[in-house]
Design a protein that fits this description.
There is one protein chain. By secondary structure, the chain is of the alpha+beta class. Among the domains are: 56-145, Immunoglobulins (Immunoglobulin-like, Sandwich), CATH 2.60.40.10; 150-239, Immunoglobulin-like, CATH 2.60.40.10. It is built from two helices and 18 strands. It starts with 20 loop residues before the first strand and ends in a 6-residue tail after the last helix.
Amino acid sequence: MDPMGDVAEFPIRSMSQRDAGSYSCQYSTKWDPPIWSEPSDPVELVVSELKYPKPSISLRPSGGVALGGAVTVWCRGRHQNARFLLYKDGNLTTLQDMETTGNLAEFPIRNVSQRDAGSYSCYYYQKWYTFILSHPSDPVELVVAEPKPNITLHPSRQVILGGAVTIQCECRCPGARVLVHKAGVPDAWRAMDSTGDVAEFPIRNVSWGDTGSYSCRYRTKWDPPVWSEPSDPVELVVAEGTDPAGPQQTDPPPTEPEGEGGTNSTQLGTALATTHPGSAGPGASEPSPAPGLTRNIITGGSAAAAGLLLLLLLLPFLCYRRTRGKKGRAPRQSR
């Protein structure tokens, strides 16, 4: 065509598969003979048809992947012998492409970094229709999480009532925000900014309420922040302590409900009951006194009787000695 200005337009109406391909243009002067320009750089015209429905896309493993881990993007089409193209964040620059004999392509991503996080989609086309792409798949989001920290209790997992314990969360995440959470209690958590590789959460004057399962995680201060995987849980056990001065006389310990590892009142009564050979069981008459007690009573009674007899024998002897003493000093008068 002869343009009216600097631009020539060539409309293509009612597109078909035959219109797909690579196009270029050039122009010539109207001199005689004409002089032709160099051809333009080519441009690709891609025709998308409804008979190529969009593929499905998924991640294996699904969800987030730890920093430095590996993930595979699966793209499944509806036609055999297809070539698949993987894109990221809507950028049509192909990240990876793969030709298959079936309808499934796998795109591995190894040693995942934060640059790999984002939204992925894929296309496919058949080999003999190079310029006919399918519709893009629905996007799938790849979330890259920080590696999970390690949690420990110091000095040990078991602490006496009223003692102290420290929860240590090792994350190697200087400057990150570290959180400790107690399982089953949504509001039971503490947070601090880590200055090194280990964040410490002390618990002083431990009570029964501190018993439970604890885990920790951290988040970066990037925008947006990235959360780590939670640590494996650790169990804090609170036990009753002992008096350093040694055992002392105390009131009987309270009984615990039966079925929770304690001893019920019936068992305590049975344990404290004194038994001896020949004693009657529940519902029989009261048992006779113990042999030791009877022996003590008889011994005491015998000693008292012997003392009384000795006194009765000593009294006449004293009276006789007194009478003899008086005869030696003066004549005794008869009565």
